[in-house]
Amino acid sequence: MEPLPPITRIFGASFSPAQESLGQGTSDFADRWNIVRNILHEVTPLRSRFGWSVRSTIGIGLLLLLSAIVLLQTVARSDPFRDIPGPFLARWTPLWLAYQARRGRRYLVVDQLHKKHGRFVRISPNHISVADKDALSVVYGQGNGAFHKSQFYDAFVCDKPSIFSTRDRHDHAQKRRLVSQAFSYNSLQQCANFMHTIVCTFVKQLDSICDEGKDVDALLWFNYLAFDVLSDLAFGEAIDMVANASDVVTVEGSDGSMTEQHAISLVDEREHLAAVVGIHPAFKSLSKFIPDPFFIRGRKSSDGLVDLARRSVKKRLASGTHRDDILGKLIFARTQESTTLTSGQVDELIAEAVTLLIAGSDTTSNSMTAIIHLIMTHPRVYSKLLAALEDRIDSETPEYGDVKDIPYLDATIDEGLRYYATTAIGLHRAVPEGGAICCGRYFPESTEMSVPAWTIQHDPAIWGDPEMFRPERWLDSKDIRPYLLTFGKGPRACLGRNLAYMEMRLVLATVLLRYNIELKSDILETTEGFMHKPLSMMVKFSRHPWT
Ligand code: HEM
Q: pTM for this structure?
């Protein structure tokens, strides 16, 4: 074998004429192979001798460590929130908060952090949680300098932003003007009649369950009911879950294919996914590469919900009928300028329909389930409420007019919403241009901030005895109402609040008057997606002897 040329020559050759000759297409394979061989030949003995490489490795390692320390110190010194306490990881990465959200325990962990550290807690590098009632008017206030929804809400966007997910103030004001007509007094009166019809079907179904003497998951039945009410209001057709005793719905894919899906899990999984990936803008795209079933299911559910809404929207458009519900109002507003809708406008309608399904269905059923659980585990409240209902209602299936003005019923609902906290996490907002002062401290523009709803609703400084389930507090004082955060606050507060109260009053009064409810467990297991939700509530319903 020919002696190998010294390595310097090989390098020399590769950067000078020899490189040119290689670059010019000297395709001689043997030449190239020689070069590689020479490199290997020279480098291997150097590596094995270690002399220089150990010293350099240690040197480079120390240099890198030193640079990292200096970099971290510089970053830390310029960090505007360096003095705000919080978990170590949360200071450096949004993954900590995403992990807590993924576990469904974010509201509890944040509450414990506030108990330990006080008013301000850093829960992500750019997110400060403020547990102080005085922060509410700043973070969720109106007018000039109002905070806007943060990028967290981009995770809730389905193709097009909806009234709930849009972050643009102007776009939101326009959408809100339009959608709020569907929640006007007149619209809700129409809805009350329809709600009564669904509740009558609901009662028929529960009567049969009583006759069979079976235990049932009451959460599931409240879910069916809330979906039926909502789908009628939003789409103009009930999905008929109560009548079918099932949440299976037929959905249409973007390719026109029809599949059957469980609507309740679509909402649950989609909402939980958004609450996790919303924590950082990169998470939504990155989650596509994570083979965790949570993300895979969440994405599928998201598509499933869009498909469900698409089917209803297309059906309505094809029918050409006008009905005075939310969808009707949204279609009417768009057909003012042209009779045919563009595909972009149809996508907008679908996005609104998905939002309404998510915002209005399981929020109400989760709340009703938790309130019933609280009532049944507090015999004093139960007896007092039953007496108040019997005093005012003499029908087996009351109408809305019978239940709309029973102070102890309303007080029990409010106390249930406070104690259980359907909205338990702090709703994300972003500090506007120019920064803002909150509770005596300056926060620069774009800082994400939130006021943790659970913590405020369990703050002894506001409620005195927050761990007591005591509806009377709502009759004794009006000053506490601003601290009930269940429906949000300010310009982005819940649009369906009156509808939700209507449904809760009617359903709770009907169920409590008609049935004896035997809870199968005194403990209500819950989890958290975007909202706080019970996992199930097994009960035995039996007819009251006097009905
Ligand atoms: C007990 C039941 C309900 C609870 C606890 C609840 C809670 C909330 C909360 C906390 C927000 C504000 C979210 C945020 O700022 O991020 C909200 C917004 C909204 N809710 Fe509800 N909601 C309930 C029922 C309903 C119902 C029945 C509807 C009717 C379809 C509805 C429609 C909406 C809409 C459209 C928004 C967006 C408002 C906007 O951004 O302008 N909600 N809800």
A: 0.85
